[in-house]
Backbone:
């Protein structure tokens, strides 16, 4: 089952976890559990798009003032949620932020295997 794992923190990370994250990535890539992933640019590079009453609204930065920031993502292939939780548990950002797991779903079909 495929899971999107959002890597979140309360602010832009200032702690250098590069070596720890690279080790986590290498391990999960080697096991075939990580299909893709990357860090995201800071929120100052974000653009929010909305259409209201047919009008395009474009604004700089995240949608609203928020303390939680998505700083990266990984796409995981795991047997089930229990395995995905174990993979997330070992991610270095689990100690400093939050990791949100969501199964992929086909529109109208529910969870996707």
Residues:
């Amino acid at each position: 089952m495929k899971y999107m794992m959002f890597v979140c923190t309360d602010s832009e990370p200032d702690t250098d976890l590069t070596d720890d994250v690279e080790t986590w990535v290498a391990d999960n890539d080697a096991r075939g559990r990580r299909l893709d992933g990357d860090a995201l640019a800071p929120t100052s590079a974000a653009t929010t798009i909305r259409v209201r009453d047919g009008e395009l609204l474009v604004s700089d930065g995240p949608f609203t003032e928020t303390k939680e920031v998505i700083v990266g993502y990984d796409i995981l292939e795991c047997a089930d949620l229990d395995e995905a939780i174990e993979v997330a548990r070992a991610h270095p950002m689990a100690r400093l932020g939050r990791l949100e797991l969501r199964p992929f779903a086909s529109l109208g079909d529910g969870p996707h295997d």
User: Anything to note?
Assistant: The CA atoms of residues 6 and 73 lie 5 Å apart. Helices lie at 18-30, 81-89.
